[in-house]
Amino acid sequence: MNLKILILPGDGIGVEVTSAAVEVLHAMAKKFGHTLELSEGLIGGIAIHKTGTPLPKETLDKALAANATIMGAVGLPEFDNSAPNLRPEKGLLDIRAALKVFANLRPVRTYPELIESSPLKNHVIEGTDMIIVRELTAGLYYGRPRGIENDRGFNTMSYTRAEIEQVAHVAFKLARNRRRKVTSVDKSNVLEVSQLWRKVVTELAGQYSDVKLEHMFVDNAAMQMVLRPTQFDVILTENTFGDILSDIGGILAGSIGMLPSASLGANTSGVTQGIYEPVHGSAPDIAGQNKANPFGAISSVAAMLEYTFGLLPEANAVNDAVGKVLASGRVTADLKPKGAPATTGQVGKAVSEAL
Ligand code: IPM
Ligand code: MG
What residue segments make up the domains of the chain, in order of their start? Predict the structure, then answer.
């Protein structure tokens, strides 16, 4: 199979983890006899520096022409006080919107090998295996009006029935192949937008009578995720709540560097376009030091093989290789290895060899 993929390393550690992920991609292609048609593009702070905009048209055109996009991270402290449309993050938000990837899948699991890497008690996190389905192209991130006027800042959290339904379908379908439970997270005791969210999700659940639906307020959900994470199978939530809750997932998994993500749109013409990126950010404090954890980026490659290309054995092979390297203890410093920490490059190489 020919895999047409755009690589967007972006800023900070995005560059290092993406290069490890691409190395693994090459090893996978070689092993399974696939051809890679890779292109590279600019996004984020580096794109602002080189082209004056966080998402150059050329990048967007390449993304639209590719089957999938692998992203590193965006964000640099020097843009902290820049205008809204000249921030690295705006490039990410714009590419998500342009590719219409409304469903962001963020699996969170506790690997037995990493149980000591989490600050939480072993018996609490043992067996954690959930997937957060975060709505990605609406809500506070995109709602209008927005702005700062006369010393008042404002944003709008807005959802239409259609926007809620399309992401809820993804959550219910995923649950069918898992433990058949969806926890819809909202703030319907306060927010009207959440009241509509809850109503629409409840109505939709009628089409999935084999899946159990429960509702939870977001403040309680944050607490439950660290109190009893094993109660969750699929968490369905809106954009901002999903952003916040998925970082808690990093604590359950041992390090935020472990978490992959898949941002998916509708399946048109038989291919699900997707953006695949680790959940972590650009971590400017450790950028360029070859010590960032590339597992989130590498697992995102596995997600891409599964969701965009339907290559399940290939995806499993990558995940198995990750498992082997985890078991070998050759991991980066964030995972608190017993021996000397491995570098980003060494982990990428080890996973490729394990393949
Ligand atoms: C994430 C990140 C992004 C988000 C930032 C970089 C815009 O935090 O993917 O979780 O908020 O969506
Ligand atoms: Mg985030």
Answer: 1-102+256-355, 118-253
